Amino acid sequence: MAETSEINAVETEDDYIHVQFRDPDQFDEIRTPDWAENAAQSVSEGSKVRTGKLEDSDDWLVETVLLAKSVGEDKAKEQAAEIVEKIESES
After folding, report:
1. Which candidate in 18, 21, 64, 80 could, as Cys together with 50 as Cys, close a disulfide (CB 3.0–4.6 Å)?
2. 49 three-class SS
3. In the chain, what are the domain boundaries?
4. How far apart are CA 22 and CA 12, in angstroms?
5. What is the CA angle 86-89-91, rounded to 5?
């Protein structure tokens, strides 16, 4: 991957803590792909990864990682960073 992912924002909503790495407005399309679920689940049970497709590109980048609210925001940031690192090292 061309850029290192850094956390932009952390928000708790409903049942999840949303750890955002990129602005969703920069993407044409956002999905929660099955292929990213394995990496996410191996770090934190019940977590999900939203990826976005850049305009005029075939690249999909991590937009947000969702983790169970019960994890807490500090732990969620650590786990989200680990999930993104895992995904980016596999791609």
Report:
1. 64
2. strand
3. 9-90
4. 17
5. 110
* Count of residues making up the chain: 91
Q: DSSP code of 25?
A: G
What the block records as the tokens of 71 is: 């994890």
Contact predicate 39/83, CB 8 Å: yes
d(Cα 21, Cα 5) in Å, to the nearest integer? Answer: 6
Per DSSP, the residues of 11-28 read EEETTEEEEESS-GGGEE
In a 13 Å sphere around the CA of 68, the CA atoms on its Cβ side amount to 8
Amino acid at 22: R
Hunting for tokens 């993104």 — which residue is that? 84
Residue entry with tokens 């596999």: 90
